[in-house]
Amino acid sequence: FFIVKMPPKPAPAAAQSGEEKGLKITISVKQSGPKNSDSPFNNYQSFRVRVLSEWIDCCGTTGQFGAAGGELPWVDETLSGDEALNSSDDLIFRSSTFSKYFDPFFVENDTPEKERLSNFNIKPGIYFIILSDSIENNTFLSIPTKFLYIDCSSFLLDNSKKTSCLSLADGTEVMATVEITKPLLSRDDALCFEPLVIDIERLENYPIYSSENIGEAMKSVYLYGELNFGSPQSRAIICFPELPNISNGDKAVNLGLKICYLPGLNSLTQFKELLTSTTHVLEVHSEDVFKRAFHTRNVTEFNTLLNSASDASPPSPSKSTSVKAKGKGLSPALTTPAALQIPVAGTPFGRITPSDTFLLDAISKAMQTSRSLRPHGTVRFRLGQLLSSTNDKLTKFGRKRHGRKEGDDVIVVEDDMLLEVRLEKASKPEKWDLPEDISLRAAMERSLAEEMSKLDGTLAVTKRSVPSTQPPKHELFFTSGTTVKILASLHRKLIAEKSKDSTLREKLAVTPFTRMIIVFKYLDDDTLEAIDNAVKKVNLKALPDIQGSMRSYSLTQDEELSSLQGKMDCISGFMIIDDDQRMVVLEGLAGPGQGMQSVYADLPRTKANDDNLTILCNPEILFPHRLYPAFCPDIRRIRIRNKLKKLARSPEIYNRRQVDELPFKAIDSLISLQWATDMRSTKDFDMFPSAAALNAVELLYGEAITRTDMDGTLKQEFGNHAGTQHAMISSRQRSRESSRSQRDAEAAAAESGKKQRKRDELVPTECRNEEFENYLRTRPLHKVDHIAEQRERRMQAWEEMLHRREEQTFKATQTLANIMGDQYKPGEPVPQVFLYSQQTLNYKALAMSKLREKVSDDHNASYTYSSNFMSQTLAAVDEVEYKKKQEADSKSQWLTKSGFQYPKRRTTKELIAHPMRPTDARIEALKEPFTDLTDKRTFSNSLDPTLKELELKFDMRGKADPIFGTLEPITFEKPFDLTLVGSRTKLPRGYVDPSQLRQKDPNFFRSVHVAGVEQTQIVADAKVKEKEDWAKKVVVEHTDFKVGGYKVRDKPLQNDRAKDILKDEPKRLVLKMLYDRVSHTGKNIGHKPTPVTIMNTGPFVDNAAHTALLRRTDTTKFVTMADLDSADSKAVPEDFIRHIHRDARAPKLVTLLTKAPQYDPPPIDKTGPKWEPAHRS
User: Do you find a cis peptide bond into 241, omega within 30 degrees of 0?
Assistant: First the structure.
C-alpha cells in the first residue's frame, strides 16, 4: 500500500478571493461572417457544451453561446498579430467565452487518496461534448453532435496549458483549454512512482487528395490506441490533430498529446516486465467518428436517461426563447410553451451522471469498433529500450565520484521514435448476403429495419465522401511515407546489483510461469508417449482425487482460478495435429521443484533440433500469465483437416469477409511457433495464440479426433501394412520358379492377405449372409467356367510379360557390353553411363578415341564410313586432343609455371612497403655520418695534408681515359684489394705503367666493323646467288598456293564482309538492272554492296555526338536581320550575345573616356592665392 503525499487542499473555488487557483476550464467560440452583409451570422445554430470527466467533479452543461440575455453573449473581436495577417479584410468576427475554476484536489470522505490517484491514472481525460437543443413531439431533446478531448495526465509533472479545437459545419470554431496553476504532485512525490511520459508530437506526410488541402484532410483524422500495462491499468489514447496552418504548406501536423503514467501505483516489477514484452498499437483513422458515436439510437437513449427522475435538471423558465421545432408532426415555426422552451442558462457542475456515463461508453465503443469495421493505419512500437542498463553503471560511478546527494539515484531515459504507418485491414467487416427479395422497395425497407434494430450506432459503417476513382487514404500510407513522431521518457531509479537468489525470487513473483514447445512427426509414438506420461505425472500429483480418466475430467471454476493465479501446480497446453506433424505447447509453474522442472527432466534433449524433432525450452524465459487454464488436466488436442502449412498458404484466410481475424491470428501464430528457433523470440514477438483463437480454428478447420490421433498407435499399423506388401512381393518372385498350382495357391494366399489387410484397416462390420452362401453351395455347376478361363489368360499374359522382359534384359546387356567394353561384367553393378555431349566421359567420345587408336597404327591406308563421301572419312587424329597436347608441350617448356607476366606480381613484403622507401644500398649509405666537403668551415682548420692536396688538384672537367685504344692489355702494380675500395690515399690495384699508355693503336677508333666494303659486297652477292639457285629448282608456276586466284586466309578480313560477290563492275544488262532495282513503292531493293561504314556519308563534323544535341543556327531567323542593309548581300546578322558589356546600350556621352595627360602649367603661371601654401592663423 503506497502512502501518497498530497499537497494541502486549498479552499473551494467559490470561497476564494482575489486570484483564482486550481484547474481552469475555458471554452471559446469564434465566428466569422461577411462584413457587407445585413445578417452575416444567419447560418449560426446555437449550442451548448457538456463538460464530462471521471476523475474530477466538473460535469455540467454551459449555457447557450451567444444567446440574447444569457450568460455567454457575443463580443465583437478585433484580430491582431498573425491572425490579422492571415485573415481577410472582408470578414468580421465575434466570440463568446465560458470559463470556470475547479478544485482538482477535492477528495470525498469515502474516497482514499490512492484510489483517486489510481482513477486519475487510468482515465485522466476531460470531454467537451457539443449539444444541439431541439424539441420534437413536445419533448425537449439535447442532441450531441461532436466532442473534444483533453488528456490532463501531464499535470502530474508540469502546469502547461492544454488546448483542443474543432470546426463546426457552419464555420464556427470551438476551442477548449484546460490549465492548472501548479502540478498535481511535487517532483519528489512524482518520482517515487517512476513516471512514464509519452509525447506524441506530430503526424508527417499524411496522404492528401488533389481536391483538398491539409486543413480539410485533418477534419476526419483522429488517433486511437491503448497502452496495455495490465488488465486494470490500461490507458486509452485519444488524439485529434491541431488545426494546421494552411499558408505555410507544411505536411507535418502537430498532435500535441503528452501522456504521463504512474506505474508505481501498482507493481513496478510487473510494469517493467510488461514494458519489455508488450507491443503497443496506435491507430490512425480517417472517418467521421462523431456520426458513429452519436447515432440516432444513442441520442434517443441519452435523452431517455437525461429526462429520467434521477438525472433531470429542470430548465429555468425565466431564461428561455422560442425555437423552430424539428421532427414529425410539428409546425416549422411552432412556439413552444414556457415549460418546454430551450434553456439558455447552464446546469450546475458536479458529479458524473448515468447519461454522461452512457455518452462516454458510446464514444469508447465507437472508436473501438472502428478498427473492426474499417481499414485504418497502425503504428506499432515497444518501450523496452527505456529499461536499458547500458549507462547505469557509468552514471552511478560518475555520481559517486562527484559526490552523490540524496535522491541522486533517479535518471531519465529517453527513446526518440519515428514510426511508419502501415495498413491494417478490418478485423470484422460486414458480410453482405444476397437477399431473397431483390426489389428496390424491399431493400430500402430492409435497410431501414436493420439500421433501427441495432442497439447502438457503433456498428454503422460510414460511407466514403471521396470519388471512387481515387484510392482510399489508408492504401496510400506506404507510398506517401506517413510517419508518427513519438518521444518516450521514463524517470526511473538506477538498476542496483542484486544476488541471483533475490533476482530469481523477484522474477518468479511477477512472472511465475514458463512454457515449452515440442514439434515432432505424426508417427513418432515414443515422443507422444513421453509427453503424455510427463503431463500425467504432474497433474495427477496436483489433482489426486480425480475419479475416472483424466481425459474426461474438467477443472472446476475454483481450480481454474487457482491455476490461473499460480496457486495450483499443474500443466496445461494444447496439441495441434495434422497429417504430417504434431505440435505441443505446455505451460506451468517455473522454478525449482515445480511442474515444468519435472517436465524438463522427463523430456530430455537427446540430439540437436531437426525436422523430425524440435524441443524449445528455456527456464529463464518467464511469462506473467497462464494462457490456457481451461486446457487442463489433459491438454487440448485439435485435429486439422489438412496440413497446417497448406492451410497457412490458402488465400481465404487473408480475406476478412471469409475468415475472421481471430482464427487468422491463431494460424499465423502456430506457423510462427513451428518456425521458431528459440524461446526468447516467441516471447518477444508474442507468438502464442489465445485459447479463444484456438477454439475458433477448431470450429472452422477442425475435424473429429480419433483414437489413433490421441494414443499414436498408427505406427504399428503402418508396419503391418509394410510387412504385408513385402510378403506379396516375395510370393510373386517365388511364383516364377514354381509350378502352376503353386502359383495359384500363392496368388490365392496373397489375395486373402490383401483382403485381411483391408479388413484390418477398416472398422469391422457384419458382412455375412447365410442364405447367399447356401445358394452358392447348392447352385448347379455352369457349363463354362469363365473364372478359370480368365485365370488361364492372366497366367498366359504373365508368362509373355516375363519373356519380353528377358528379351529386353538381353538386349540391354548386349548394348552395355558394346558401349562399356571390358568394363562391363555381367552380374556386377552397371557402371555409370554418360550420354550428354558436353560430358567428358561421354561413351560415344570414348568409343571414337579407341577407334582412332586402332586406326592410327596403319599409316598406309585411310578409313571411311562411305567411299562416296569425303566427309565420312575417319580422322586419325583428334584435333581437340592434339591442340591440348600442343599447349601442354608448350607449357612444359616454360621457365615458370604461371607463364610470362609483366609486370611481375609483387610479394607481400613489397605490397606493404612504403612507396617512398629508399633502396637497401641507400639505407646503408645513410647510416654513415654526413660530411659536407664544400663547407669551408669544416676543412678550413684541417690538418690533413692529403685533403688539402685533393682540394687544390680538384678539376670540374673530366679527362679522357688513356686506357682505351692501347695495343696490349693494361697491367697494374698489384692485384685488386677489396679493402681499399673507398680509400682516399690508396688505390685498390695501384697505378698503371705509363709506358703501356704510350703504345696506341691508330686504327682503334676508325670503325666497329670487322671487314671492309669488299667483304660486305661478297656477303651480299652470296645471298643473291643462293636465291637464284633455289629459283632454278622450282618446277611450279607460282611459289605460293592459291585457290581460285585468291589468297586463302584462316579468317576473312572484316573489310571483306562488305565486298560484292562480283570482283569487277557488272557488264551484263541483267546484273546492272539488279544493282539499280527499285520497288513500285520507291524503296531501293538493289544489290549494291553494303558500304563499309555509315560514318562517311557527309562532311566531317567535330564532336558529332555533342553537336547532334544542339540546335542548328539559322541566321535567317535572327532578330538582328532587320538591322542589316538589304543592298549588302554579304552582310551577316549578329548572333545572340551571352555576355553583354555594360556600355553596349549606353549613349556615347556616358561612355566617352579621355586618356590625355593632365596639363601642368609652367612655374611662371603658378602665381596667386591658389598656388600659395596654406598658413595657420
Answer: no
Q: Is 413 helix (H, G, I), strand (E, B) or coil?
A: strand
Q: What is d(CA 574, CA 907) in angstroms, rounded to the nearest whole number?
A: 66
- Looking at residue 9, its pLDDT comes to 40
Phi, psi of 24 (to 5 degrees): -110, 130
What lies within 8 Å, CB to CB, of 509 at 6+ separation is 269
Q: Which helix (H) or strand (E) holds 34?
A: strand 23-34
Q: Could you report the per-residue pLDDT of 675-692, keeping only the tens digit for each?
A: 999 999 999 888 999 999
CA dist 566 and 512 (Å) reads 7
Q: What one-letter code names the amino acid at 997?
A: L
Which parts of 678-831 fold into alpha helices (H)?
Answer: 679-684, 691-701, 707-711, 714-735, 740-761, 770-778, 786-820
| Measured distance CA(1071)–CA(1089) in Å, rounded | 13
Question: HSE on the CB side for 551, CA within 13 Å?
Answer: 7
What is residue 457's DSSP assignment?
A: G
Paired sense of beta strands 125-136 and 483-493, if any: unpaired
Question: Up-side HSE of residue 177: CA atoms within 13 Å toward CB?
Answer: 15
Edge-to-edge order in the sheet of strand 48-53: 60-61, 48-53, 125-136, 139-151
Q: State which H helix or E strand residue 996 sits in.
A: helix 994-997
- Residues of the chain with pLDDT below 50 are 1-18, 106-110, 309-339, 455-464, 721-737, 739, 755, 757-760, 1177
C-alpha cell at 642: 489438412
CA distance 880 to 267: 85
**Encoded amino acid at 481, one letter:** G
According to DSSP, residue 678 is labeled: -
Kind and range of the H or E run holding 261: strand 253-261
- Quote the CA–CA distance of 811 and 803 in Å, as a whole number: 13
- For cell 533476482, name the residue: 503
User: In 3D, which of 603, 200, 663, 227 has the Cα closest to residue 417?
Assistant: 200
Q: Which three cell numbers stand for residue 770?
A: 447365410
Q: How many CB atoms lie within 10 A of CB 630?
A: 14
- CB count within 10 Å of CB 340 equals 15
pLDDT tens digits for range 314-326: 333 333 333 333 3
pLDDT of residue 733: 43
Of the chain, the end-to-end C-alpha distance in Å amounts to: 101
Cell of 758: 483391408
Distance CA 88, CA 66 (A): 23
What is the structure's pLDDT at 496? 63
> What is the SS3 assignment for 810-865?
HHHHHHHHHHHHHHCCCCCCCCCCECCCCCCCEHHHHHHHHHHHHHHCCCCCCCEC
Grid cell 447515432 is found at: 295
CA distance 1027 to 1020: 11
Peptide bond into 633 cis (omega under 30): yes
**In whole angstroms, what is the distance from residue 101 CA to residue 973 CA?**
127
CA distance 436 to 989: 130
Helix (H) or strand (E) holding 139: strand 139-151
Cα torsion angle, 281, 286, 291, 292, sign: negative
Output the nine-digit C-alpha cell for 99. Answer: 470559463
- Count the alpha carbons within 13 Å of 390 in the hemisphere toward its beta carbon: 6
How confident is the model at residue 714, as a pLDDT?
58
> φ and ψ at 1160, to 5 degrees?
-115, 105
Cβ(1089)–Cβ(1065) below 8 Å: no
The residue count of the chain comes to: 1177
Lookup: cell for 625: 500469465
Q: Going edge to edge, which strands form the sheet with 235-239?
A: 235-239, 221-227, 280-286, 376-381, 422-424
Q: What is the DSSP letter of 68?
A: T
Three-state DSSP at 374 gives: coil
